[in-house]
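Raw record, unedited: Transcriptional regulatory protein ZraR
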Amino acid sequence: MRRRILVVDDMEFNRDHLRKVLEPGGYDVEAASSGVDALRRMEEQAFHLVITDLRMPDMSGLDLLSQVRTRRYPVGVIVLTAYGDTTDALETMKAGADDFLTKPCNPDHLLFLVKRTMDRRRLIDDLEELRTRLHEDYSFHTIISKSPKMRNIFDLIKHVGPLNSTVLILGETGTGKELVARALHAASSRRDRPFVALNCAVLNDSLLESELFGHERGAFTGAERRKAGRFEAANGGTLLLDEIGDIAPAMQAKLLRVLQTGVFERVGGTESVKVDVRIVAATHKRLEDEVAAGRFRRDLFYRLNVIRVEIPPLRERREDVPLLAMHFLESSSGTRPTAVKEIATEAMQALLEHDWPGNVRELRNAINSAAAFADGSVIRPENLPGSLAPRPSRRPSGSNLIDIDRRLPELTEDLVGQVEKEYFQRLLSEYRGNVARCARHSGLSRRSVTQKLQKYGLERTDFKRANGRVPSAPHEAEA
């Protein structure tokens, strides 16, 4: 589709000159003789770019720019200023212009600025589309994912959230266990009651007991008044016991009693306290192994393991890496002095190839670090932490792909599928998700290309990044 430009100038000669420069560059150009005329035209049709003179009678270019931004027209604006008038140029940029150009205009420089502004606006549109998809298509109670494994967990949360059953969440550190626990709480009838979380691994036995059950005045040195514990704080709501696999046997016995009866005594007290709390437990350990080794009570394990949620590590859902990376880049933009909006292709490839032992938490920290060191608006490979430096491809050689124990038709189908998927990944990267251009390049019809993308789970919008065409690979979660 040809890009549409609206030229605004009260001098007919200037309008005609700009038209003669722009139309051979492949743009559709319309002209308006005043700011009022320009606003009327923008009400009637959409433009990709407005080029306006600064000094015009009735409505100046600055006033027109203000109206365009106030009315939130999704259009780039370039303002033409007098030669050497840096004050006016600065004012236009402060008012929201995408760029400015001094008169008389150099045709090549004008076309360069037009293309650059168009690319910027396209990036803004792409980011807005991604933002919409993050919140509408790939977001579930603040968890961002499009991987089938995580979507299955979302379905499980919807199903078991309304129940009062105890839930055991298993997953490596940083996979998002607390976010899943919060999603369970939000999906329950207890959503308007407290959600309380406690990391059991960071406290010794005596402190953990006091934190869970509270204490009476004088129970120990420094206990100057009664203090309610986490069970009381979560009464009527949900209590997350994170890293429950790390608690000592004596504490396991006390916790088992509360799960069985809903009753406990504060430390140093004799009064029984009854609570109504839904327990969600989480751990990075395999509790079956802990039970077999005698480090975890079998009866407590059975009490906890009523509903089981296993969160896959990030390396098993690499298709989430681009989504999460862009989400973290956007969500942290307000903490940086300069706007970092893009991730270069090579940097994204490095993110996709990393194994992420720290999972989503490690990815978030990597993006925040890279954005802090980025020079400009793009994260490049050299901005990434050292452990993420691009590595040589680990793809097996052709001989390793050949398994003579398999039948040739089956093997051929698999190999063709691998080649086709990578071929279309690279095409989408090269053409930033433009299916029509991919079709022309491949010699296939657009319909055939679309069918291939659906077959291999490739979404063109994942590749629409200016300066950072995002390839897909083999929703946010962190604990």
